[in-house]
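Cross-check.
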Amino acid sequence: MKKKEACPVYSASNTPKCITKQLPFLTSTDHWMPMTRHCLTGSGWLFTQTIRAGQQAGGIWLVMQDSRGYPAMSDGDVMTLAVIESVDWLSQQQIQVHIATLSFGRIMRSSDAPAQPTRLIGQLYGGWSPSSVSLAADDVLITRLHQWQAEFGLVWPEWVTNQTPLCANWVCLRWLELLPLSLKTKQRLLKQPSARNCLRYLKKVIRQSDRYH
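Predicted model, tokenized:
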């Protein structure tokens, strides 16, 4: 029998805080969080150079940007560390970059390392503490998440569909990816020590949305 994969939680206990990385970065209105895989698309000289530099450096930072084009790039803002798994340079009109998102990082403007305009210095940041909260299959956040998955063809790791109850941290991160919350709100929730505030906030948002449908 195949052993189920445990719910991974990138927390302060298993992500070294002392490690800093100066990596190429991309800004995007798609706010990808840790513990999933995604496909980025783009074109042009700057995008191409960033992806090549990310391959050489062993990773890239993904910086959250709002709909008006303003990124969260202040000291201490939260961004996502991703590794490039493969790149399709030619078969499509745009470059297709397959990434795995690993952990969070905090932007470090005050650092001994010299700043570079095409790179950001970040300190690995575990994010929320390991969650002691699990969500049952009939929880409103779970049922609505499965509805989104069916409607938009979202693909998540096998353990998500096989494991019950689900880890609250993982569920909250997926909703932060999906919901068009303000960048300020997402940053504020991610900087909390645990996912409890995010969990309460998301349930309030979903229930209010259900009330108007």
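The chain has six helices and eight strands. Residues 1-16 have pLDDT under 50 and may be disordered. Passed to J.P. for a second look.
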